[in-house]
Task: structure prediction
Amino acid sequence: MMENQYCYKYPRPALTTDQVIFGFGEGELRVLLIRRGNEPFKGKWALPGGFMDMDEDAETCARRELEEETGLKVVNFEQLYAFSDVDRDPRYRVVSIAYYALVRWEDCKVKAGDDADRAQWFPLSGIPPLAFDHRRILQMAADRLKLKARYRPIGIDLLPPEFKMADLRHLYESVLQCTLDRDNFRRKMVGTGLLVDAEQENRAKNGRKVRYYRFDRVKYRYFTEKGFYLKWE
Result:
């Protein structure tokens, strides 16, 4: 190994990744946060993330840091943005590449590890003060998901395999931050051809049948690639 292999004539910023993990549970969009066990911002809530190793790319770093700090293994990340404000980290010059992912909240068993002393889901409507510029990162991810819901299907990674139409509508209301007309929503979703009747059928307390749906995976894949436009409001 060459002496001073990692020494350079000019200063170099450090590189990190931060991960915004969205889930949907109890009728609300939720995000996974960790409580920092080390300075800076010890005891503050933050997004999972950390420094990139010399032998890994950014997405590998994102997966590793998420698993180390929360116990979650996420396969499909989408890159969000590179955050490079000069003073975003009080220690030194740090640039962060942010990612976001959608997961089934009820399937995720989180456990804090590494330099996180706690990992917990928070409803998007009740986020505590966050360390660094993580509030800005989270807001950008929520805005990206809101935009995506207008031209791509989003439910398959967030809902259980079989779900009620009301569950799907509540998901879209939580993402879009608005109230949607029940009948209009049903008509538009059925009209896409994305939904098929599930075999499951339960009865409500008043004796009426409750219909369950699932996504047609072929059409879901098609619209994920080709897109559509649905004006919800």
About this structure: Strands lie at 14-25, 28-36, 45-46, 49-51, 78-83, 94-102, 116-123, 163-164, 195-203, 209-215.
